[in-house]
Each structure stands twice: as structure tokens, then as C-alpha cells.
Design goal:
By secondary structure, this protein is of the alpha/beta class. The chain has helices at about 5-15, 20-25, 30-45, 60-80, 95-115, 125-135, 180-185, 200-210, 225-230, 240-245, 280-295, and strands at about 50, 55, 90-95, 120-125, 140-145, 155-170, 190, 215-220, 235-240, 255, 265-270. The protein is globular and about 70 Å long.
């Protein structure tokens, strides 16, 4: 058995399908299948119940998955712990799309200042996928969202770097009230992040509780792009308050207070265990993130 075969099993179990695993590992589905078959042959067990669609892990498959996660984490810890810093060392960093606009430039600036020979290999995706990539040894660190009341898993190495508060925002020219009830917002189309955004999901759930639904005028990642569409009257938005205030269009935007809806998420920086060789780069990223989100 080998590490690549173990990564294939972890990707299938966490992704749910061969297609998701292939996309995550940048492989073809036949390549994923070959790796799984090779691992099954070396272990002498059936890891996936292929009679189910999509295939689901067997009892042995679930046990193997847990063991593979531990092995991949230990292997990465060993490689990083005994490795010596070298010129051009790469930091594999994952950033959830919800904070990409905010942290990208500060992180690059911090690395250029503190680790001038370092390089950044950047990956973006939903927080749940980035945490899985950390466990699978595919990333060194990730900046992710978690619900304010729920911290990371005790087995994860993490530090909270701040809080993200979002506000409902509209074009001043729309003439909307300064305060509105949540259910009244459902009468307006939204310019909002695509599916996979925690804030969007929270808004959809709250609308459902009111017997309403979310109307999407434009679904797009990128806060500057969203704010421009909002100013142009395409719809209202759900945008980090700090970015509304910092926008060049701030004088044309209006924050609407919604007393029964005040979404906040904690921003965490997670790392793949103890990585002394990457300590300067990780410290630079942490400081940059804390400056953006102003840790309490």
C-alpha cells in the first residue's frame, strides 16, 4: 500500500463520490478506481459497497478511512518536522471564498516582508473541504469560517483570528428604510455568494422559518463585484460590514439594520499539526489575518 492510495480512499469517503474525489485530487475517475482497488488488494478487504449508488464505505472501509486519516496526518507531521527551511519553500494555504478578498493581499504582503524566499500555493473552497484537505495532508494551513458557538474539533490545531459580521446592504438610490424586519427582505432580490457560503445558507434557513424563500438576482463570488451590482440596482446584498465601509462606493451604499438577523461567523486559522520548518510563514499569515479581522 502507498500514501497515494490512502489519499484516494480519504477523498472518496469525504467527497461522497468518485467524481468529487477525482476533482479534489486532480485525477481521472479511473485513476481513483485503480488506487482504491490497489488498496483493497493490499489490505485483503472490500472498502466500498459498490452495489450502492453512489458507493458507500463498508464497515472495513470506515475503519480504514479513520486509520488513513491518522497515517496521512502523521506522515505530513514527520515530513515537516524533520525538514529544514529551504529557499523558495512553499506554503500550501487554503482560504474559504468568503474571506479571500479580505486576506489575499495582506497575506501576500506579510509573506513578502517576513519570508522573502517563501512562495504561496493558494487553494480556495468551502470550509468543510479545506478542513478535509488539511486532514489528508494536501494543505499546510487554512483560513476558514466556523459558527460562532461551535469551535474546531479538539484534534485540530487552530487559533481564532477574528470574527466576521455581515450586514444587509442596498443602493441608497433604492430608497429602502434604515431598519427592516427579516421577512420583509424576502420581497427583494439578492446579489449574493453562490451555494456553499455559510452566510447564504443561514439566510435561506431563516427565510424558510418565515415561510419565505430567497430570490437571487445574481450569484457571484467577489465582494467588489457584488457591491458594484448592488450600486447598479440589481438587488440587495449580504456583505461584510467592514468591506462596505471600506468600499470606494460607500457613499452610494446603505447598510440596513435588521434587528432579528445579525449573522456572525468566527474566522479560524487551522494548521496541519506542528510544522517548525514553516513557522515563520505561518506566523506571517496569522498576523495578516488578525489585522484584517481585528481579533477581540
Amino acid at each position: 500500500m502507498n500514501i497515494d492510495d490512502m489519499r484516494a480512499l480519504v477523498a472518496v469517503v469525504e467527497g461522497g463520490t468518485l467524481a468529487q474525489a477525482a476533482a479534489r485530487l486532480h485525477l481521472t475517475q479511473p485513476a481513483i478506481t485503480r488506487r482504491l482497488q490497489r488498496l483493497e488488494e493490499s489490505l485483503g478487504v472490500t472498502l466500498l459497497d459498490r452495489d450502492q449508488k453512489p458507493a458507500r464505505p463498508t464497515e472495513q472501509g470506515r475503519s480504514a478511512y479513520r486509520a488513513c486519516v491518522d497515517i496521512l496526518r502523521a506522515t505530513e507531521d514527520l515530513r515537516r518536522a524533520v525538514g529544514r527551511p529551504s529557499a523558495g519553500q512553499v506554503l500550501r494555504l487554503g482560504v474559504t471564498p468568503g474571506v479571500m478578498d479580505a486576506v489575499l493581499r495582506p497575506v501576500f504582503d506579510g509573506l513578502a516582508r517576513d519570508v522573502p524566499d517563501g512562495r504561496l500555493d493558494l487553494r480556495t473552497g468551502p470550509s468543510i473541504d479545506l478542513r478535509a484537505a488539511l486532514r489528508g495532508g494536501e494543505l499546510d494551513a487554512a483560513i476558514v469560517f466556523l459558527r460562532e458557538e461551535k469551535g474546531p474539533d479538539p484534534r485540530e490545531t487552530a487559533i481564532r483570528v477574528g470574527m466576521e459580521e455581515v450586514s444587509v446592504v442596498a443602493a441608497r438610490s433604492a430608497g429602502l428604510p434604515e431598519r427592516m424586519e427579516l421577512e420583509d427582505l424576502a420581497d427583494h432580490p439578492f446579489v449574493i455568494n453562490p451555494d456553499g457560503c455559510g452566510f447564504r445558507t443561514g439566510l435561506e434557513h431563516r427565510f424558510l422559518r418565515c415561510g419565505k424563500s430567497l430570490t437571487v438576482a445574481a450569484s457571484v463570488w467577489g465582494i467588489p463585484q457584488q457591491l458594484q451590482l448592488i450600486v447598479d440596482g440589481v438587488g440587495i446584498g449580504l456583505v461584510p460590514r467592514r468591506m462596505v465601509r471600506a468600499s470606494m462606493e460607500s457613499d452610494r451604499l446603505q447598510i440596513i439594520e435588521v434587528p432579528d438577523f445579525t449573522p456572525r461567523l468566527a474566522v479560524w486559522m487551522m494548521t496541519a499539526g506542528h510544522l517548525p520548518a514553516l513557522a515563520p510563514a505561518l506566523e506571517a499569515v496569522r498576523r495578516a489575518a488578525e489585522q484584517v479581522f481585528e481579533t477581540e
